[in-house]
């Protein structure tokens, strides 16, 4: 023990007298890796040693004193103070019971305020505060049930927060099925290329945007989930769809948060990219705005899953949607723009994402989701001005110019996304059969689409676009 | 690192140094008790509490000083900045010398300036405990800031400063020399953005 004593006295002598530091018991316990109580004893014996054996009277010592104060209006309070040595008796006299009194710090300079004491052990205490378990190990205040979470736990928590919906939606369908589904849609889309129904365009925009966001997010987490997500919907029958509607409405809140997660993720990535587009904050606003609408619309939907099929009601709805469209159109446009930006950025995100991104793989199947989404979203966004909403929900053919983001690999091996104007005409009617369910699932997520056209026509158009996008994508490559 | 990168870092370094200098001047005013403790308020800088003088004229004087030093720094014209405590009979009693230089090598490894911030905290701590190393000052001391620059920069700044209504004047020899001075090294830092060392000098006659 004698040798240890020598050593810590030397240490303290060096710190205090040579380096002119203020040494608190906390700092001492961390530096020497001893229990705080031991550190207090060390400081005390150091002070005694200095004063008695070395005639060093220049030490400035502070004490920590705690206790119950004298009752004020019958109420006793617990007081804890760090006081300079000379005031210690005075302070103690203000306490009725002194519960603890020990040395707090030793230093050669006068401590005028708490700044210095805080500053003195700031760095040793805050060093690696997440991994520094010494702070807990040597403290006499303990809570054994509090345990540090492992990295994996933290990860899983994060994941749970960011993608509650996607995990729920994932069902037993295999990746293979998902790919098949995509494949089946392709041919139809090609055929549809020439015709576009106006309404569906509006719907798919939203769908594409939000669904795309979801898909993208899911992809980030795991490519499999993404494909499942997409394929799942077609397999469901209408009943399931209805059920989903109700479920979806409940989920809406979660989904909205999901969206945010996606958007946030996008932001974070985007900041890294200097070349991205400016209106990010705006985007956020709009997306946030859209959420309440989504809820409203889903509410409307819920009561009338059956109505959808009835033409009269469908019309009624549609006409409503037509009226709404005026009010909404502005919002929609804005939203669409926002989505467009999102989609393009998300594409990029996909490329960047650490998970093996489909784009880089040579096989076409995995790639398909990315380009599809891009096209889906982008054309719709730009087209809304031209689209006209008909009350009866007829399909119209339209020629449109779309601003389509194209992504390709440039000479240097960078993924480059460019916006290109393309003439596209689509027929909504043709697209009907395969995609309706898909859209529905997604529709529930984005109520606006539903508003515009409750019928299933809209979804097919979305499918068609996707395909067009795909083909384009490949060609460019 | 490229030329551009270096000058950019030096530019950032100038800003960092000025931020620090402002806090450090206030810290000196507080620890050397040049103003009553009542005019200081506690603020947070570099994640630690610091004392800042809230008297409006002192505050604006410090701000103006630091601003014009910033201009000089960006032209790489500053060798050192000293905060001089002057006795009532106009003799410099002690001074705190901040020697600055542009970073000479790329040390790297401090992307988030975490270490730089830590060392700036260290500077503040050292400043606040210097009183134990220095003799107490006589009553009614005053203070001044002196900047050591290249001559060309001094001329340039003279023209600019008149525009800003905050002129600098050439210091007399007797204001800059301490009699029988004793040097107390405090701290040094060398980072990607700036090199700086701080020491105090104390005259034997006070």
Automatic annotation (TrEMBL), chain A:
| Biased composition regions of type Basic and acidic residues, renumbered to the chain | 148-162, 221-258, 274-314, 370-385
The Swiss-Prot or TrEMBL record annotates one GO molecular function as: DNA-directed DNA polymerase activity
> Residue ranges under compositional bias (Polar residues)?
163-198
Compositional bias annotation for Basic residues: 395-404, 447-458
InterPro entries given for it? Answer: POLD3 (IPR019038), POLD3_sf (IPR041913)
Segments of this protein annotated with the region Disordered: 148-477
Q: Which UniProt keywords apply?
A: DNA replication, Nucleus
Q: Which GO terms are recorded in the biological process aspect for this UniProt protein? A: DNA strand elongation involved in DNA replication; DNA synthesis involved in UV-damage excision repair; nucleotide-excision repair, DNA gap filling
The principal location of this protein is: nucleus
Lineage, top-rank taxon, reads Eukaryota
Location(s) in or outside the cell: Nucleus
Ranges annotated as biased composition (Pro residues): 355-369
Q: From the record, give the transmembrane residue ranges.
A: none
The record's GO CC annotations read: delta DNA polymerase complex
What name does UniProt use for this protein?
DNA polymerase delta subunit 3
Species source reads Mytilus edulis
From TrEMBL, chain B:
This entry carries the following GO cellular component terms, namely:
nucleus; zeta DNA polymerase complex
**Origin, by domain of life?**
Eukaryota
For this UniProt record, give its keywords in alphabetical order, as a comma-separated list.
DNA damage, Nucleus
The coiled-coil regions, if any, are none
**A GO BP annotation:** DNA damage response
| Span of domain HORMA | 11-200
State the InterPro entries in the record: HORMA_dom, HORMA_dom_sf, Mad2-like
Check the record and name the SUPFAM superfamilies matching this protein: The spindle assembly checkpoint protein mad2
| Compartments where located | Nucleus
Quote the PANTHER family the UniProt record gives.
MITOTIC SPINDLE ASSEMBLY CHECKPOINT PROTEIN MAD2 (PTHR11842), MITOTIC SPINDLE ASSEMBLY CHECKPOINT PROTEIN MAD2B (PTHR11842:SF10)
Protein name stated in the entry: Mitotic spindle assembly checkpoint protein MAD2B
**Organism the protein comes from:** Mytilus edulis
Q: Source organism lineage?
A: Eukaryota, Metazoa, Spiralia, Lophotrochozoa, Mollusca
């Amino acid at each position: 023990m004698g040798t240890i004593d020598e050593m810590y006295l030397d240490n303290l002598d060096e710190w205090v007298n040579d380096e002119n530091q203020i040494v608190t018991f906390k700092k001492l316990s961390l530096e020497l890796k001893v229990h705080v109580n031991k550190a207090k004893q060390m400081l005390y014996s150091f002070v005694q040693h200095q004063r008695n054996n070395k005639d060093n009277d220049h030490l400035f010592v502070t004490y920590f004193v705690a206790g119950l104060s004298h009752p004020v209006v019958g109420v006793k309070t617990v007081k804890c103070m760090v006081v300079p040595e000379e005031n210690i008796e005075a302070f103690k006299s203000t306490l009725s019971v002194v519960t603890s009194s020990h040395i707090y710090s030793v230093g050669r300079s006068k401590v005028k305020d708490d700044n210095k004491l805080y500053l003195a052990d700031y760095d040793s205490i805050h060093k690696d505060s997440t991994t520094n378990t010494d702070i807990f190990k040597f403290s006499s205040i303990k809570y054994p049930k509090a345990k540090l979470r492992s990295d994996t736990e933290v990860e899983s928590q994060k994941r749970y927060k960011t993608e509650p919906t996607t995990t729920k939606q994932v069902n037993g369908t295999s990746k293979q099925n998902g790919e098949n589904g995509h494949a089946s849609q392709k041919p139809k889309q090609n055929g549809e290329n020439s015709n576009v129904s106006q309404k569906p365009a509006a719907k798919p925009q939203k769908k594409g945007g939000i669904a795309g966001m979801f898909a993208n997010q899911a992809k980030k987490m795991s490519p499999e989930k993404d494909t499942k997500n997409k394929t799942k919907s077609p397999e469901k029958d209408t009943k399931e769809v209805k059920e989903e509607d109700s479920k979806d409405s409940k989920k809406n809140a979660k989904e909205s948060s999901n969206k945010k997660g996606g958007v946030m993720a996008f932001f974070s990535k985007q900041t890294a990219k200097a070349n991205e587009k400016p209106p990010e904050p705006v985007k956020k606003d709009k997306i946030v705005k859209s959420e309440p609408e989504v809820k409203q619309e889903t509410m409307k939907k819920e009561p009338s899953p059956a109505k959808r099929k009835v033409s009269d009601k469908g019309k009624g709805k549609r006409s409503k949607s037509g009226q709404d469209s005026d009010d909404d159109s502005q919002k929609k446009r804005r939203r669409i723009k926002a989505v467009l930006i999102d989609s393009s950025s998300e594409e990029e995100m996909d490329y960047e994402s650490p998970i093996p991104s489909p784009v880089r793989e040579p096989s076409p199947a995995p790639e398909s989701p990315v380009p599809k989404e891009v096209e889906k979203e982008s054309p719709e966004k730009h087209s809304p001005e031209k689209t006209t909403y008909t009350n009866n929900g007829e399909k119209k053919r339209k020629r449109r110019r779309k601003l389509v983001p194209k992504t390709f690999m440039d000479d240097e091996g960078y993924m480059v996304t460019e916006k290109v104007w393309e003439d596209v005409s689509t027929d909504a009617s043709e697209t009907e059969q395969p995609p309706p369910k898909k859209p529905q699932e997604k529709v529930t997520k984005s109520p606006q689409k539903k508003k515009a056209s409750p019928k299933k026509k809209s979804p097919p158009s979305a499918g068609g676009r996707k395909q067009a996008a795909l083909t384009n994508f490949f060609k460019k490559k | 690192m490229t030329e551009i990168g270096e000058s950019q870092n030096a530019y950032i370094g100038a800003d960092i140094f000025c931020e620090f200098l402002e806090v450090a001047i206030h810290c000196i005013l507080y620890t050397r008790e040049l103003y009553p403790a009542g005019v200081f308020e506690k603020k947070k800088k570099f994640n630690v509490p610091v004392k800042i003088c809230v008297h409006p004229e002192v505050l604006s004087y410090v701000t103006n000083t630091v601003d014009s030093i910033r201009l000089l720094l960006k032209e790489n014209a500053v060798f050192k900045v000293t905060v001089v405590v002057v006795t009532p009979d106009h003799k410099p009693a002690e001074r705190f010398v901040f020697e600055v230089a542009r970073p000479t090598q790329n040390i790297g490894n401090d992307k988030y300036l975490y270490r730089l911030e830590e060392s700036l905290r260290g500077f503040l701590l050292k400043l606040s405990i210097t009183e134990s190393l220095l003799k107490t000052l006589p009553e009614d001391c005053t203070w001044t800031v002196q900047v050591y620059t290249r001559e060309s920069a001094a001329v340039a700044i003279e023209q600019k400063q008149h525009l800003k209504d905050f002129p600098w004047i050439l210091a007399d020899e007797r204001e800059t020399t301490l009699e029988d001075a004793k040097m107390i090294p405090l701290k040094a830092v060398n980072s990607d953005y700036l090199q700086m060392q701080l020491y105090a000098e104390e005259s034997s006659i006070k």
